[in-house]
Design goal:
Radius of gyration: 21 Å
Structural class: mainly alpha
Mean pLDDT: 77
Distance between the termini: 65 Å
CATH class: Mainly Alpha
Helix content: over 70%
Largest sheet: 3 strands, antiparallel
CATH architecture: Up-down Bundle
Length: about 290
Amino acid sequence: MVTPVLHWELVTPIYIYATITFIIEGSVHFAIALKIWRNRLHQKDDMVYLYKIFFITFLSWAAIGFIATFSYLIAPLSFDPAIPMTRSGFDIEHPSLFIANVLREAEKCFTWVTLIGVLVASYTIRYGSLVASKRILHNKLIMIPAVILFTVANILDNIAVQIQPGGNAIVMLDIGPSTALILGIIMGFYFGAVFHLHKTTSFAPWEAEKTLRKRINLLVAGVLLEVIAYVLTILSFLSVTLQTSTSADASFALFQIILLISVRAIFVLAPVVMYFAFRKSPQQYALEQTSK
């Protein structure tokens, strides 16, 4: 069996930078997941359930970051830079692209876990764990269509590699109807979560204390940041597609770098904002110290 030659020269600086940001993003999510898991020990009943849901959600976000670290970096490695071509999906002739799409499938599975996790968490905050479990996780009218949509989206969404004349490699996603479907699903789940969180803060002041309202507003802000990051991600891949069909100048390349920086920065900022919703207040910390 012939071992494929790996062309590391196809890995451009922008993909190296993206790899570093994915590692930072995954590490931040993982650190917050561990913090939430430790804090669950001081909670009771529905709050324990809520903390477990957020733990799974943040752990899935961490997995997405760590998987993306490798998927876009390795995708072009088995391509010959001297042969211009475009390949997409599970291309056996190019093992690096095949492996990248396997990783992409795992990344998408974790993405769906985060979407369901955020929605279940918002329901739990508003109605309690029993209602949230009944209305979402054990509701066939929601879960069966969701699984079908997720499956279709997963099949249609693939990583592609284009080798341009001159030996430059561009790694991108196939932009098409599947992109709109995936973005629509993501927006639907996240805005559903925002709606229920907002409804919780709409209670009369004596029904929702100031601290609780502040924590929920932080969760809403974090979820909305995730939505913005996903929209910018699609714009980022659209810009890559535009680059492959037009002659892009230096200013366009600078725009792509700024857009990439913005997307990754928001993906890192969003969990940090949500973390403050779980951080112990000075009053809670003092109460725990006095009870020891």
